Amino acid sequence: MAHKHFPFRFSPAGLRGLEASATLVINEKVNEMWAQGKEVYHLGFGESRFPVHPKIAEALRQHAYQHSYLPSQGLLEVRELVAEFYESRFRLPVSPDRIIIGPGSKALLHALMQALDGELLLPTPSWVSYQPQAHLVHKEVNWIPSSPAQDFALTIEALQEAMERSERAWGNPEILLINSPNNPTGRMFTAEFLQELAEFCREEGLTVLSDEIYGLVTHGVRKHYAMARYYPEGTVTLGGLSKHLSLGGWRLGVAIMPGNRAGAQLLKAVRTIASETWSATTAPVQYAAKLAYGGDPDIEAYIDECARIHAIRTRYLWQGLRELGIRCPEPHGAFYLFPDFARWREPLAALGIRTDQQLAMHLLDVYRLATLPGSAFGAPPEQLTLRLSSSYLDMETYERSEAVLAAYRANPDPESFMREHHPNMNEALYRFRLFVQSLEERSPNGKVPELVFE
Ligand SMILES: Cc1ncc(COP(=O)(O)O)c(C=O)c1O
Question: Which of 21, 49, 106, 179 to mutate to test the pocket of ligand 1 (most atoms within 8 A of CB)?
């Protein structure tokens, strides 16, 4: 029966158990602090913030008059270019009829999860949205544990154990979601590991959803390999324009299905969901995407230039943390770091900090450092991990992003680029230094120095 006082009644199916994410809680607090005029160093915000390439902006402008609904699968011309792009960039042979264009890879992932039966196998840690998306479509999630001492690497043994655990409970673990370069750790799979993983997945008949949205944001340490090269019959590859061209707000993603009959069926299922939900991806954006995927030398150079800058900034932050004795896996791609503070468990406990959420709140309250707790990514709270993003500091506004790009073009030497043009990144590192010092200086019964930042 409807409650008189509540105009809206919510469907518990799917929504029950979903809570406001830690990301939202931190962001709201940061906004509050900003509104009070307080300086906050935002390492929680993961968005590539380089300017829109002028040629792409012009392409969008020119196609503003495109106002008709497009096919749910996406424009054929765009799909053809996406196919060529994947072939040339990732040596992945793709047929345009196995590609679907969607309003961001996130929406496509949701549609895929809705379309596919079976439980999800999710490496720990994983991007914040995978688990809630599974929840929304009533899909059971089986977390695959990992260890900070092993840089949170996914192992076949841990995957197998997670499958067996699910099967003992009569579950059907059938879908593995992988993400390389990884959000939140920045790690990338090697070709050897993918080969091994492919053999395991083939043996077990697993469907792999391979989120490769950061595939072109690499640091030059490891090469990106597409899982579909090793397991073409069972892998769906996800990508889009959000990261390597900083076009998150334009909402254009792609999903590439296997070339077999099963892939054709899956494409049909996702296209059906698309046609009954978002209909089609925004027309002018699709027309502009022809340039983004079209192999234009200026655009190609811009993609690589932005990746180099992300690499310099992210690795600078990583080096800075390492010099403070903070354990953190070396990033290979994307713009994230996943340090842990378990080394200071005792002095932290003396401060009343026993979970990563408390740690993130302490850093925000006392040091004005905004970070995200690792538990938002599925890490156990007592591991005391944080997810840091290098993408926002010193690129807070469009003008500042343009200035960072101009500074790099004027002098790409990483040393001086970071020293002279990254005051906020350096200040954030300084504050981490103070925090670590306060933990080091604190004996189990000692006092932590009071710090007040204005
Ligand atoms: C790992 C990962 N996958 C997917 C997305 C979403 O990408 P899109 O803008 O294509 O929906 C993000 C964005 O933060 C991400 O970090």
Answer: 106
Nearest-CA residue for ligand 1 atom 5 is 106
Residue 37: CB atoms within 10 A of its CB come to: 7
In CATH, what is the architecture of 54-295?
A: 3-Layer(aba) Sandwich (3.40)
pLDDT at 304 over 70: yes
CA nearest neighbour of 291 among 144, 82, 31, 447: 82
Q: What is the pLDDT of residues 316-333, one digit of tens each?
A: 999 999 999 999 999 999
Identify whether the C-beta of residue 212 lies closer than 8 Å to the C-beta of residue 177.
Answer: no
- Higher per-residue pLDDT: 105 or 22: 105
Average of per-residue pLDDT across 412-425? 97
Q: In the block, which residue shows the tokens 């189990």?
A: 444
Q: Has residue 368 got a pLDDT over 80? A: yes
Distance 247 CA to ligand 1 centre (A): 11
Contacts of 376 by beta carbon, 8 Å cutoff, 6+ apart? 21, 22, 23, 128, 387
Ligand 1 atom with least separation from CA of 105: 10
| Domain 14-50+299-439 matches domain 54-295 at the CATH topology level | no
DSSP H helical segments within 92-239, as ranges? Answer: 105-115, 130-136, 156-168, 191-204
* Residue 213, ligand 1, Cβ within 6 A: yes
Where exactly are the structural domains of the chain?
A: 14-50+299-439, 54-295
Residue pLDDT, tens place only, 177-212? 999 999 999 999 999 999 999 999 999 999 999 999
Options 2.30.30.30, 2.60.40.10, 3.20.20.140, 3.90.1150.10; CATH for 14-50+299-439 is 3.90.1150.10
